[in-house]
Amino acid sequence: MQSKELFSQRFAVFRSEAGVASVLGATCPHLGADLSRGRVCGEHLRCPFHGFEFDRAGRCAAIPSEGRPPPRAQTRSLPVREREGLILAWWDEHGRAPSWEPAALETQGWSTLHTRRFELRAHPLSTSENSVDLAHFSSVHGFEALEVLEPARAEGPYLSARYRFVHRFARLPVENLFRVHLWGLGYSLVENLTPSLGLATRLWVLATPTRPGHMELRVGTSTRTRLAVVEGGEQSPWSPAIRGRSLGRATTELIARFALRTLAADVSADFDIWSHRTHVERPALAKGDGAIALYRRWARQFDVSPEPPANPGPTLHTLRARA
């Protein structure tokens, strides 16, 4: 059981005895107790105050006294998807059903998902925009020899781009191929290939607004358990047909943890900028800035204000990672 502040509201995140994850509004509609202080009873969440029980849809399913549950005894339930070790929750201010979700990923042949969580002052518009802000890759993160392999393209709630760059580790130049997948403003996935080492890694950057001007940022990594065979830099490391040497579980987990430390350090370099950034509605863009104009046109569909929102538009957010 977890108590989470999401979109300026309090929610209870719990798993039923059958193992199903649910997200319910934490204020009991009976007399206002905090449901996240209650307990799980079978498939229900039991209020700690008067024992009202709520099902995963947020309906009061049972009361300890005689009679039926009051018709208005219902709390909000967020649609949930659990996949790739993440619990994803759909938010729509008006309660509309999900209209899209990220493409599913193959998890067989990949390490455990490793995550780290941060709380900071920032807006999801800024965190996702970094994916197409080419100039900041060198000025903030020190990437070298950046090359756009596939320009940013947007299709509905999905935006993608592909780059090549050099990142130095202990002063040694290491080439990386980097494909970005954005699904809404809350879910960013990077598929990274290091050709010289044959390492394929998935990197997640997941933003969830908590209250106006603040958000929870969760980053995560997972590594392929077999080395990718790359011929001429063209063969996809994500193809199931690839049969490279097995790394072994211990080595794979070690690499995934190292990748998490590297990702967390890279993302942390942006924190001070995000925290003190002012949104410029009509930026004076330079040639080397990347597809920022395209990104902002794409982001408008999520109906978010550039100012810190209490209730952003329909989008998908990550509540927690599953161990």
TrEMBL record:
Protein name, per record: cholesterol 7-desaturase
Enzyme class: oxidoreductase
Keyword list, A-Z: 2Fe-2S, Iron, Iron-sulfur, Membrane, Metal-binding, Oxidoreductase, Transmembrane, Transmembrane helix
UniProt record similarity statement: Belongs to the cholesterol 7-desaturase family.
Protein's organism: Plesiocystis pacifica SIR-1
Pathway: Steroid hormone biosynthesis; dafachronic acid biosynthesis; Hormone biosynthesis
GO cellular component: cytoplasm; membrane
Cofactor(s) required for function per UniProt: Fe cation
EC number: 1.14.19.21
Biological processes, Gene Ontology terms: cholesterol metabolic process
Phosphoprotein found in the keyword field: no
Upper taxonomic lineage: Bacteria, Pseudomonadati, Myxococcota, Polyangia, Nannocystales
